[in-house]
Design goal:
By secondary structure, the protein is mainly α. It has 14 helices and seven strands. The protein has a three-stranded antiparallel sheet, with no helix packed on it. It has a two-stranded antiparallel sheet with strand order 1-2. Helix 1 packs antiparallel against helix 2 (44-64) and helix 6 (170-179) runs antiparallel to helix 7. The chain is globular and about 65 Å long.
């Protein structure tokens, strides 16, 4: 079985499928699961990530002569060992996070198949156990007596080494902004660095989402001060998606307003932008005036990082914003709201002490201990 991308000739929608290498017949249960992911509002990137992982599991079962519809905990344990011992294309062993990502996709697929009656419900039940939900998402209803706080958690899980996400230091932030050669690139970086947006959220912004006046009541918005609206849209021409699927308001600093004003002047000099409501558009080439895609933005930010002799990625800007807020004393629940995290567990990664914090604490106490 191999992964293939199917594009609807009528709607242009993308569905990732698992097909037989010889006949190209799609795997029926995986096709149903992929359509379910799309119908549930999961991003195309989620489909693209899940289907190859499920294909890896099904191919492993086929090689061993194991019926995937009757797998038990022992089979899944052996599959976990297989994933852990198979090196990557670079020859490195997979991280615990990578192993867990594979197991998550497979277990979710088997649970879906159990609900649909493709496999016995006991197959999926054996792969999870009841656990107490310690960090329920915002707005979660625990039910009477907290009975809803008990959830089914995966039994098999690889240990993960927790480390702080890669971020830019304040001098590097200045360096990156100065290395941007267009007003559009400076505006994009500022929105990511000051607002902590995901790149998909930034690329999905429309001009109507930018409320940069001190008072936006005339726009029907009661939020005061410069801000932008992250709105979930499923029909973005460039495929951009707001991951959480919820609307939120993100305040902006005056520097973002300044860079946006400069960008508008640059944008108005392009032909073909009058009919495009997207904020971030291509500046050159045959697609000039059309909305930027993820690959466009990724290449732009990588090139800017190369000019500064550092590795820069779009999501690093979001990590940088969150880390800066936490280290400046902003309350974690405020950071959670700014980032659009459904659960505080997602924000907790930014709470880990860094090496310099540990060294400073030891040195501070060491100075007070009498010799």
């Amino acid at each position: 079985m191999r992964t293939e991308k199917a594009i609807s000739p009528t709607t242009g929608e993308v569905t990732w499928l698992l097909v037989d290498e010889t006949t190209y017949h799609p795997h029926p249960e995986v096709r149903e699961f992929s359509l379910y992911l799309r119908g549930a509002g999961r991003s195309p990137q989620t489909q693209r990530a899940y289907v190859p992982r499920i294909g890896r599991f099904l191919n492993w079962c086929a090689r061993r002569g194991t019926d995937w519809k009757t797998v038990g905990l022992g089979d899944m344990t052996r599959f976990k060992f297989h994933v852990e011992r198979t090196p990557s294309h670079q020859g490195q062993p997979p991280s615990g996070k990578t192993v867990n990502a594979v197991l998550t996709a497979v277990c979710e697929f088997l649970r879906f198949c159990a609900v649909q009656g493709h496999v016995d419900r006991e197959v999926a039940a054996r792969l999870s156990e009841p656990r107490f939900l310690t960090s329920p998402p915002k707005g979660f209803d625990p039910g009477e007596g907290g009975q809803h706080l008990m959830v089914r958690a995966r039994v098999l899980k690889a240990p993960e080494i927790e480390s702080a996400p890669a971020t830019l230091s304040p001098p590097q932030v200045t360096q990156v902004l100065n290395a941007a050669r267009t007003a559009r690139d400076r505006c994009l970086l500022t929105v990511l660095l000051d607002g902590g947006l995901r790149i998909g959220e930034a690329l999905g912004l429309r001009r109507e989402d930018m409320h940069l006046l001190p008072d936006s009541k005339h726009l029907g918005c009661r939020t005061r001060g410069a801000h932008l609206h992250v709105r979930p849209r499923q029909d973005n021409e460039n495929g951009a998606r707001a991951k959480a699927g919820r609307h939120r308001v993100v305040p902006l600093a005056q520097s973002a307003v300044h860079h946006y004003r400069e960008y508008l002047a640059e944008r108005e000099g392009l032909s073909g932008t009058a009919g495009c409501d997207y904020v971030f558009v291509n500046l050159v080439g045959g697609w000039a005036g059309r909305p930027m895609s993820y690959s466009n933005a990724k290449q732009v930010i990588e090139r800017i990082g190369n000019r500064c002799d550092l590795r820069a990625r779009p999501h690093m800007m979001r990590h940088t914003a969150a880390t800066r807020w936490i280290r400046s004393g902003v309350a974690p629940d405020v950071v959670q709201t700014l980032l659009g995290h459904a659960s505080s567990a997602s924000t907790a990664v930014y709470l880990h002490a860094q090496d310099e914090d540990l060294r400073s604490a030891v040195d501070h106490i060491g100075e007070r201990v009498p010799r």
